Amino acid sequence: MRILEGAGAWTPLAGAANDWAEQLRTPDLSVGTYCIPAGGLDDQSPHTEDEIYVVTTGRGRIVTPDGTADVGPGSVIFVPAGEEHRFEVTEDLALLVVFGPAYGSRAQG
């Protein structure tokens, strides 16, 4: 057992537009926190792993080719591997992110 201290908490790096911090990595999954300030640009690319986002603080919209949806604290979002997606942020957004398998483990390189 392991408690993931700080996972999902709003903790952006000073001067950074967005912040990604990984709190756990195993071969089968990884867990981290992604923070985007209000009005910030979410410039992520599609991932090679499935992912689940849990909004812990803040508000905005998730935009995918299939549509858009408003998100806020408690929202849980599944994004399959390879799907384009981005967040449009209206209030500082902190997301707990779970990747399966671990983030980047399927990346071609």
Written overview of the protein:
It is a single chain. A hairpin with a 4-residue loop joins β1 (19-25) and β2. The protein has one domain: Jelly Rolls (Sandwich), CATH 2.60.120.10. The protein is 0% helix and 49% strand. The model has no long low-confidence stretch (mean pLDDT 92). Strands 1, 2, 3, 4, 5 and 6 form a six-stranded antiparallel sheet that branches. It is globular, with a radius of gyration of 13 Å. It has strands at residues 19-25, 30-36, 50-64, 67-71, 76-79, 86-100. With 109 residues, the chain is an all-beta fold.
In terms of topology, how is this protein built?
Layout: E1 19-25, E2 30-36, E3 50-64, E4 67-71, E5 76-79, E6 86-100
Antiparallel strand pairs: 1-2, 2-6, 3-4, 3-5, 3-6
Domain Cupin type-2: 34-99
Protein name: Cupin domain
Organism: Actinoallomurus bryophytorum
List keywords for this structure.
six-stranded antiparallel beta sheet, 109 residues, globular, mainly beta, single chain
From the 3D structure, determine the CATH topology.
Jelly Rolls
Secondary structure: number of strands: 6
Uncertain regions: pLDDT < 50 for 5+ in a row? none
- The figure for the number of domains is 1
Overall pLDDT level? 92
